[in-house]
Amino acid sequence: MTAEEKILYKLRKARRKEERLAEALTKIEPKESSETTHDPEILTPEEHFFFLKMGLKCKNYVPIGRRGIYQGVILNMHLHWKKHQTLQVVVKTFSPEEVKEIAVELARLTGGIVLDIHEENTIIMYRGKNYSQPPTEIMSPRITLSRKKALDKSKYRDGLRAVRKYIPRLEGDLELLQAQAKMQAENKTEAVEDFQNANIDSINSQGISNLQPENSDKLRELLAGNNESSEEESLTDSGTESCSEALSDIFESDSDTDTKEKAEQLLYLNEFEKFPVESDGEPEDFEEHLRQISADSRKAKSLEKDADLPQLDEVDQMFLRAASLLKKKRR
After folding, report:
1. In angstroms, what CA-CA distances link 293 with 12, 27, 290, 296, 298?
2. How many domains does the chain fold into?
3. Which residues are within 8 A (CB) of 71 and not within 5 positions of it... i.e. 6 or more apart?
4. C-alpha–C-alpha distance, residues 20 and 14, integer Å
5. How far apart are CA 128 and CA 85, in angstroms?
6. In contact, 36 and 143? CB cutoff 8 Å
7. Residue 207 resides in a domain
8. Higher-confidence residue: 162 or 308?
């Protein structure tokens, strides 16, 4: 079963249950008789205010639970009115509208007067000016339900309330499911349309791709012809270049040999120029040559000393130089 079928099944079952409970309630409710007529006494505003104040202060009360109104409730009310003028009827597990209906029903069955409904759950009632203890038939009327039947009636009533709350919720769930199904159907139609459009586009693209290989084959043939012509041109160019290179090698070989001979000659001349010039076995200006040699040796020694010395300040260097000059003078 799908979710929609389950909800429909539950909805049919709930509606059948609602009909069954409604029929049971109509059967169990007591039949109304013409004997129970209510003609309440008329109270002045002062009397109404006085009895209402008395009823709010009094402590005697009759509770009404889930069974509602039955024979025992009416009997208890008459027993309280035997000694008290006012009475509080505390109603539980009923809505404010149902409390009003209960107040009207109690006034009709007991013959009392409803003064006020306090805090939506307490009915304040007055027994009347000319009240007298009624006979047992009136104190526990037959038109009311017994204790057991009142309990069955409350069960049927509670079940009917629950079913009437449950049916709208099922209807809402069913509407949501139907809306979701419509949305899914629309999405499926859109997906089918998109798929068809995609197929059409693919067919068109395949036709274009079939045309493209034919054009590409033609282009390849043209490129192959161009490549062949370019290869022939490159071969002719390479032949001409090889001829020109052979001629250039011939001419370059002669020029290279000439340059090498000239370079060898220059090298030998440079080496001969380095030798000292002698005239008749004696060099020119021999004394000056000796002086230069001695000066060069002194400079070399001084440089070696300076290199051996540690790094000193200018003042220390001056003192060292002065000491060296003094030593030379003493020698």
Report:
1. 138, 156, 5, 5, 9
2. 1
3. 140, 141, 144, 145, 146, 147
4. 10
5. 8
6. yes
7. no
8. 162
CA distance 116 to 56: 10
Q: How far apart are CA 128 and CA 43, in angstroms?
A: 9
Compute CA 272 distance to the chain's CA centroid, rounded to the nearest angstrom.
98
Instruction: Name the amino acid, one letter, at 3.
Output: A
Tens digits of residue pLDDT in 192-211: 777 777 777 676 666 555 54
Instruction: Identify the CA nearest to 125 among candidates 83, 87, 90, 82.
Output: 87
**Looking at the domain assignment, is residue 194 inside a domain?**
no
Taking the model in full, what pTM does it have?
Answer: 0.51
102: domain CATH number?
Answer: 3.30.110.60
Q: Which domain, by its residues, includes 94?
A: 3-178
Residues 252-294: pLDDT tens digits?
444 455 555 544 444 444 544 444 444 444 445 667 777 788 7
246 has a pLDDT exceeding 50: no
| Residues 118 and 57: beta-carbon distance below 8 Å | no
